[in-house]
Amino acid sequence: MTESREQTVARVTAALTGKPSPVAIHRARKIDARGVQDHFWAVSDAQGVIVATGTDEESFESACRSVGIDPADDNAIIDAGGRVLTPGYVDIHAHGAWEKSFDDGPDGIDVARAGHAVHGTTRQVLSLITNPVDVIERNVRNVRAKMDERPDILGAHLEGPFLALARKGAHDPECLKDPVPELVDELLEAADGCIRQITIAPELPHGIGAIRQFAAAGVVPAVGHCDADYETAKRGFDAGAGIMTHMFNAMNGLHHRKPGPIPAAVEDPRVTIELINDGFHAQNPMVKLGFGFAPHRIAFVTDAMAATDCPDGAYKLGALDVNVVDGHARLVSNGAIAGSTLLLEVAVRRAVIELGFDASAAVEAATLTPARAFGFDKPNKVTGAPLGLIAPGYAADLLLTDPATWRVEEVWCAGRKLK
């Protein structure tokens, strides 16, 4: 009997608010940022942390016993049967799925997270769109509360209101602001430490100062939705911006006499560069070019909105009407691209199958690189165990994937079975 989406949301939410269990997987083909290994196994404990990995069966049996799993019990062991085992995907820029956005309150967060989780996105930074400041503050408080309930929510990304009018994309121009210090303080206070990332146009009158202010508070500012030239973008990165928001989109393009912000990000080893690999936001030749710009620093993101994993039709992006045709979302008012309907599962699949990327590099772009943008590749106060690799000490965020189609078949987040 097929599970309804309502049942899926309830089950995934219950799993994420519940306790982890030991997990033992063997006979897998491990692919992560460190490379490929066949005949691989991984075992995690009751805290949702990987305790051992390897390739020899005797050590696997010993590791199973160490966490209370009987290696002779076929019902307790997951036989991967040669399927691909990767770390869980980490999406640091997404707005929603399954007809809900992360701005839609606690229930909306549960629904949209389930929509991404069953496709392998085990951890997510919840992106909130430009709204009146009081609405942004309410929405960021909802994210803060959810972080206390479950491990999969890493915090909030404020995509606005500090964007350039000329590069606003699908954001409401009536709500755009200059990031004066008082407003920055107000948002930081409302967030109570849950803002991970904030997109800022550095050329705004208080843009560079706001980047410094947010960075000093532990937030990672991102340069994006900007009309900045090369020098201004460089100043933004020097002031503390550590991310470029969806490279190529909502910013000056590459020009041989007007370099713009992209070269400033590419040449700076401190900067993680987001890339939407859907073939629409950036067509395939530009995805290939962009992926090669900064090895180990390209993070696949989805920028997914509420229509993700849904049929074409009419949807909302905040208060704005959106029409989705052939999976592409555009504002009804002016035809501007209004986010994507991409899943990280699809971004990785496209990279490996359609674009011919090295599988380890494609997986890295959806796992270790986005985790590293916030220091989540090391032990930290938010996730505890680090994210992004299948190795002892790392979180038991695990995906079993069909090697032919790269469709995610089984999902664990911190030792909690989601699919």
* CA distance, first residue to last residue: 15 Å
How many β-strands, per DSSP?
A: 21
Query: What Rg, in angstroms, do the CA atoms define?
Result: 21 Å
Q: Please state roughly what percent of the residues sit in beta strands, choosing from under 5%, 5-15%, 15-25%, 25-35%, 35-45% or over 45%.
A: 25-35%
Keywords: Carbohydrate metabolism, Hydrolase, Metal-binding
InterPro entries: Amidohydro-rel, GlcNAc_6-P_deAcase
Family: Belongs to the metallo-dependent hydrolases superfamily. NagA family.
Protein name: N-acetylglucosamine-6-phosphate deacetylase
Describe this structure in words.
This protein has 419 residues and is an alpha/beta fold. 29% of the residues lie in helices and 25% in strands. The protein has helices at residues 5-16, 57-66, 105-117, 133-149, 181-191, 207-216, 230-238, 261-266, 284-293, 344-354, 359-366, 368-372; strands at 23-32, 35-44, 50-54, 78-79, 84-87, 89-94, 96-97, 100-101, 121-129, 153-159, 195-200, 220-223, 243-244, 272-276, 298-301, 313-317, 320-325, 328-331, 398-401, 408-413, 416-417. Strands 1, 2, 3, 4, 5, 19, 20 and 21 form an eight-stranded mixed beta sheet that branches. It has an eight-stranded parallel beta sheet with strand order 6-9-10-11-12-13-14-15. Strands 16-17-18 form a three-stranded antiparallel beta sheet, with no helix packed on it. Strand 1 and strand 2 (35-44) form a beta hairpin. Helix 1 crosses helix 3, helix 5 (181-191) packs parallel to helix 6 and helix 10 packs antiparallel against helix 11. It is globular, with a radius of gyration of 21 Å. The two termini are 15 Å apart. Keywords: Carbohydrate metabolism, Hydrolase, Metal-binding. InterPro entries: Amidohydro-rel, GlcNAc_6-P_deAcase. This is N-acetylglucosamine-6-phosphate deacetylase. Belongs to the metallo-dependent hydrolases superfamily. NagA family. Residues 84-403 form the Amidohydrolase-related domain.
